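R.M. (postdoc): so does anyone remember the format we settled on? I'll just put the structure tokens first.
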């Protein structure tokens, strides 16, 4: 919220183990962004994950009047055209999707926040294409396994980093191992 409220563009990596709560942080950032009058886009690497995020977000925000949409390759052409119109007019506040979010036909009315889930699964150009859909957009990357290039950006000052070190209460511990042959 501090990043989103500041006069500087956010460029932040949120890292944490699987199940640590990265997604709820992303959803709350999208909600805050929506309350401030901006659109948000969350890009997931697979349709299955995009649908899962969409269903969870719809459930979380069901008591609000926030327009949430899902855009993937399997959405019908007619539905896509409707989503494109609503995105460009600003009627849709939050959109979740796959690479479909960066297609040429997708135009946003007031994009203020882009989130890339499992950022290591996207190329530099793909992540940039989503960010470039808006003007002076805040960016949040999420990953349980950041790539070396991402770490280099955090070291040299181009990206801030947040780490979730604890699991939500009641969650089983995630164990991460490094093994040799």
């Amino acid at each position: 919220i501090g990043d989103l409220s500041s006069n500087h563009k956010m460029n932040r990596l949120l890292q944490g183990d699987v199940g640590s709560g990265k997604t709820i942080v992303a959803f709350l950032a999208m909600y805050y962004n929506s309350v401030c009058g901006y659109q948000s886009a969350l890009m997931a690497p697979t349709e299955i994950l995009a649908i899962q995020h969409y269903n969870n977000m719809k459930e979380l925000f069901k008591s609000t009047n926030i327009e949430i949409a899902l855009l993937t390759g399997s959405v019908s052409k007619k539905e896509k055209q409707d989503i494109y119109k609503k995105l460009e007019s600003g009627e849709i506040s939050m959109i979740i999707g796959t690479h479909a979010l960066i297609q040429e036909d997708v135009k946003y009315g007031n994009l203020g926040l882009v989130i890339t889930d499992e950022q290591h699964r996207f190329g530099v150009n793909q992540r940039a294409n989503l960010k470039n859909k808006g003007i002076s957009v805040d960016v949040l990357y999420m990953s349980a396994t950041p790539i070396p290039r991402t770490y280099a950006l955090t070291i040299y000052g181009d990206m801030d980093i947040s780490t979730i070190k604890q699991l939500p209460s009641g969650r089983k511990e995630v164990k991460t191992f490094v093994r040799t042959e």
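R.M.: ...and that's the designed sequence above, right after the tokens. Also worth knowing: The first helix runs from residue 2 to 5. The chain has a mean pLDDT of 84.
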